[in-house]
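Reminder to self: tokens first, then the designed residues, so the page reads top to bottom the way the pipeline ran.
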């Protein structure tokens, strides 16, 4: 384990608030996988009031990709996601400040335009973003900038009511990230609150206590934490039994509408690992049975004209489509971990992933750059090279497989491509690189400028076109 691995926490206790500082040491560390980076980013966003992101390279594109990966995963809970993102441009001189900030704002506007409603600024930060040029340490404006940041923090509304609420929230968020549960945080908080009250209710009614044994815990207000007075109760006032045959009865059957009432994400223990799965859940019918009747009219349903999820699953991660049942557009979901069950190891960002490791669907191709996939040939009439040639696929004459593009792979699944606009555009291009020695070891190889699976060019020996100049 690296000495800086994880998140470092420090506290400052004042008369009005407890300020909690989280230092994410290992963002963009070379040993951190994209999935670990994504989960840290999402954890930071959901628990923080103010995020200070230090952009030393001033590379807007790489920074945007970092945040964009998690933009569509969590529900946009209005009361939970309240963080403001401050992008810190370090060591900016006064003369260059206006030009650099203007350039960054222009690139952010371009990103919002390309990604549309799914851009991370709108979904994760509700448009609350600020670009701060931080002077050099020996500059007189260094301390002034620090003071301005402090004022920004004071103006932010507190997300967590108290320390107990913060502790509970942070545990829930970590658990949801662990099992790739992207459902609403607010809904989860409510479910836990209801479960807690349900557990305490029998003891509270019987003894006027929250807990009887082994430690006596008196009743407290679950909102304020103040003790509740234990008043004297006359048993004759509460021990009354009413006969309900003349009243409406709640139906005890499950909903029988098409589609899925509720989706539950839970861990499933295997022999050597734990896999997170999604299960469908049928909710109880919400209709009432009339007095002196045994059944109500109409079908059992958990809600009149209620929402039912589509019952199709992603073939990779097996997460359910989150669109309404019977929708006409491509399926869509917030993907989970896909199953790597091939006999061969899959090399992913210099890591060997064996069959008991998992990768989020929207991260497997992220660092592959330009690439193709392999799938079974679907041409039943004639499985030959000529019948499978197109802009999105090329036949493998050694096997009954096709080399297909990233776009074609997701079209075959019926699900919306979960990658960003910039990544999808990059995946459509040819992945061959110039083999000249001058490019060896370079961080910016010279790629072919033509589309993936293009026809070979006659004027070049290798059939590709490169935008680089060097001796033959």
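Designed residues (472 positions):
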């Amino acid at each position: 384990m690296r000495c800086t691995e994880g998140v470092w926490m420090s506290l400052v206790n004042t008369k009005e608030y407890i300020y909690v500082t989280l230092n994410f040491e290992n963002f963009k560390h070379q040993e951190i996988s994209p999935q670990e980076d994504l989960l840290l980013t999402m954890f930071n966003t959901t628990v923080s009031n103010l995020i200070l992101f230090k952009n030393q390279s001033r590379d807007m594109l790489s920074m945007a990709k970092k945040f964009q990966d998690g933009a569509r995963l969590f529900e946009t809970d209005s009361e939970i996601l309240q963080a403001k993102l401050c992008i810190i441009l370090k060591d900016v001189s006064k003369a260059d400040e206006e030009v650099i900030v203007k350039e960054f704002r222009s690139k952010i506007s371009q990103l919002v335009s390309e990604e549309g409603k799914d851009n991370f600024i709108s979904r994760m930060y509700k448009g609350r973003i600020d670009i701060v040029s931080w002077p050099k340490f020996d500059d007189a404006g260094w301390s002034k900038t620090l003071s301005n940041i402090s004022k920004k923090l004071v103006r932010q509304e507190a997300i967590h009511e108290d320390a107990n609420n913060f502790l509970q929230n942070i545990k829930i968020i970590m658990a949801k990230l662990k099992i790739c549960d992207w459902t609403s945080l607010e809904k989860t908080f409510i479910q836990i609150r209801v479960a807690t009250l349900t557990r305490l209710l029998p003891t509270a009614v019987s003894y006027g206590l929250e807990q009887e044994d082994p430690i006596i815990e008196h009743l407290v207000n679950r909102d304020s934490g103040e003790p509740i007075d234990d008043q004297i109760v006359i048993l004759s006032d509460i021990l009354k039994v009413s006969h309900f045959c003349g009243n409406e009865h709640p139906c005890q059957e499950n909903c029988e509408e098409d589609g899925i009432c509720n989706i539950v994400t839970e861990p499933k223990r295997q022999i050597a690992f734990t896999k997170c799965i999604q299960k469908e859940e049928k909710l109880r019918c919400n209709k009432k049975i009339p007095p002196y009747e045994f059944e109500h009219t109409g079908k059992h349903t958990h809600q009149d004209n209620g929402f039912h999820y589509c019952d199709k699953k992603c073939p990779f991660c097996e997460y359910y489509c989150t669109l309404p049942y019977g929708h006409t557009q491509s399926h869509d979901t917030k993907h989970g971990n896909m199953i790597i069950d091939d006999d061969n190891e899959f090399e992913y960002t210099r890591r060997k992933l064996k069959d008991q490791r998992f990768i989020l669907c929207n991260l497997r191709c992220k660092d592959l750059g330009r690439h193709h996939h392999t799938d079974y040939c679907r041409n039943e009439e004639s499985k030959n090279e000529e019948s499978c040639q197109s802009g999105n696929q090329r036949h493998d004459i050694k096997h009954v497989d096709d080399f297909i593009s990233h776009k074609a792979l997701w079209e075959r699944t019926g699900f919306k491509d979960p990658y960003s606009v910039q990544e999808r555009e990059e995946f459509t291009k040819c992945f061959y690189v110039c083999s000249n020695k001058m490019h060896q070891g370079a961080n910016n190889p010279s790629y072919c400028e033509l589309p993936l699976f293009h026809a070979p060019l006659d004027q070049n020996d290798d059939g590709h076109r490169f935008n680089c100049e060097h001796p033959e």
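Residues 68 and 321 are 21 Å apart (CA to CA).
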